[in-house]
């Protein structure tokens, strides 16, 4: 195994992207993800790649659109308000069936909000994110190691299904340092016969476009796209289970909230409460299977989130409302403490022993 | 000791983040699980800069330190803000050149180090942070010249290799204070 180094989550994303063969980065600075751009600015020129600080987020996402249409690995990164600005481009790329990687290191909102960590862009990321019927693969890292690994995975899935992968992190994940090993097996990329790389007068033109004025044709494209989405849902859901085997209480949490929850769960176990964690790693596709199982074995589920309760809706859908699902949250840049989560666990278990 | 939670705090520019990185890297070279989380944003400009470091034998859960085992306070606002949070039986290391008051609690181990004064008397005015680190490691029973060498080797970039000796000097000054 390679030597472990200490890296910030943001830096780990940038380095992993380069290792995955991404030679094109376009972005516009915004806290708390600027280290990604800074890292790319330093590294890209050294490997013959392109780092470009665009004049705006909108310009950056359209540069991504351009490079993606040539079949090259490409990415952008931003934080919450910046991702909203990229919405139009995300929809156009979905309509053009192009692969790319977008990183959202979330901060508190809505509006300009604050700059401290948040998970309140869950709806935006998992339910479309802009106009039209489309999906993005949404990956939620909970460690610096995963910031790196899911970046590589994100590129692979984007290529495989010709769609956008989004890393949905938060300020804590971006700013914290942890040991990380960067020894990945980088798989060979699938061919890109659709890419606009010049015909050399040897083939028909490839056209990359999201405009389709004939309704029947546009309907067909939507149906086809959703066949692919169905395959993603069937094959790509990822999650971690922690102490769930005998759990009466299930905590559902991703990213930083799952780290805080683990502390609370270990503490609750010491008090004799049978509690475990289901941590979605993909937020779309949402990992329904472990929740369907938990709906038959657990007596309560607690969704721990840095939002007013967004993932909780998917938890309720997946469990078919068979068990009560409650929310334990902080918002606006605040993070639930292990004590707060422990209290919620004790309450769900029927109060103090 | 299975898990130690550190909170380093001071003014921006006092080398709080660097001290935290040194401790984290030292832990890494000793095959511990580690995490390092800085405060970021407006807090870093002016007010109190802080960083959470966790060194553990087990995987680190939350990287946020809200109840430190060890508080390092390099200025008064830091002590004012975090004194109450230290776990009973924990440690507080304070730079007594810059913090004139005493710690009010009597259920923690307190060490006052005139670090800023020592640093300036010894011609290393920017290394008060590492003087406190020396004292801290000594009192925690974690001061070995090998551990220090390994930590410093990782945290000081090759370009600044000349700084290593001065850091060792600062750590020794603190350990012997």
H/E order of the elements of chain B? EHEEEHEEHHHH
**CATH topology term of chain B:** Pyruvate-ferredoxin Oxidoreductase, domain 3
Question: Into how many domains do the coordinates of chain B divide?
Answer: 1
Mind summarizing the main beta sheet of chain B? 6 strands, mixed
- Secondary-structure class of chain A: alpha/beta
Tell me what the CATH architecture of the largest domain in chain A is. Answer: 3-Layer(aba) Sandwich
What is the CATH domain class of chain B? Alpha Beta
User: CATH class of the largest domain in chain A, please?
Assistant: Alpha Beta
The stretches of 5 or more residues of chain B where confidence is low (pLDDT under 50) are: none
Order of strands, main sheet of chain A, comes to 3-2-4-5-7-6-12
At CATH level 3, the topology of the largest domain in chain A is Rossmann fold
How much is the average pLDDT of chain A?
96
Q: What Rg of chain B do the Cα atoms give?
A: 15 Å
Low-confidence stretches of chain A: none
Shape of chain B: globular
Quaternary state of the chains: heterodimer
**What Rg of chain A do the Cα atoms give?**
21 Å
Count of helical stretches of chain A: 13
Pattern of helices and strands of chain A = EHEHEHEHHEHEHEHEHEEHEEHEHEH
The chain-level structural class of chain B is alpha/beta
Number of strands of chain A: 14
Describe it.
The complex is a heterodimer of chains A (353) and B (177). By secondary structure, chain A is of the alpha/beta class. In chain A, 41% of the residues lie in helices and 19% in strands. Chain A has two domains: 5-191 and 208-235, Thiamin diphosphate (ThDP)-binding fold, Pyr/PP domains (Rossmann fold), CATH 3.40.50.970; 239-348, 3-Layer(aba) Sandwich (Rossmann fold). Chain A has helices at 9-19, 34-43, 57-68, 80-85, 87-95, 122-126, 144-161, 171-175, 215-235, 255-270, 288-297, 311-319, 338-348, and strands at 5-8, 24-27, 50-53, 74-78, 100-106, 137-139, 164-170, 177-180, 239-242, 249-252, 275-280, 282-284, 300-305, 325-329. In chain A, strand 13 (300-305), helix 12 and strand 14 form a beta-alpha-beta unit. The longest helix of chain A is centred in the middle third of the chain and has 21 residues, at 215-235. Chain A is globular. The termini of chain A are far apart. By secondary structure, chain B is α/β, with parallel strands linked by helices. Chain B has one domain (3-175): Pyruvate-ferredoxin Oxidoreductase, domain 3 (3-Layer(aba) Sandwich). Chain B contains six helices and six strands, in the order βαβββαββαααα. Chain B has helices at 16-29, 76-82, 115-121, 128-139, 145-155, 163-175; strands at 3-11, 33-38, 48-56, 70-73, 91-95, 109-113. A six-stranded mixed sheet of chain B has the order 2-3-1-4-5-6, sandwiched between helices. In chain B, helix 1 packs across helix 5, helix 3 (115-121) packs across helix 4 (128-139) and helix 5 packs antiparallel against helix 6 (163-175). Chain B is globular. Chain B starts with a strand and ends with a helix. The A-B interface holds A 4, 6, 31-32, 115-116, 171-172, 175-179, 256, 259-260, 262-263, 266, 335, 337-338 and B 21, 24-25, 28, 33-38, 40-42, 60-64, 66, 154.
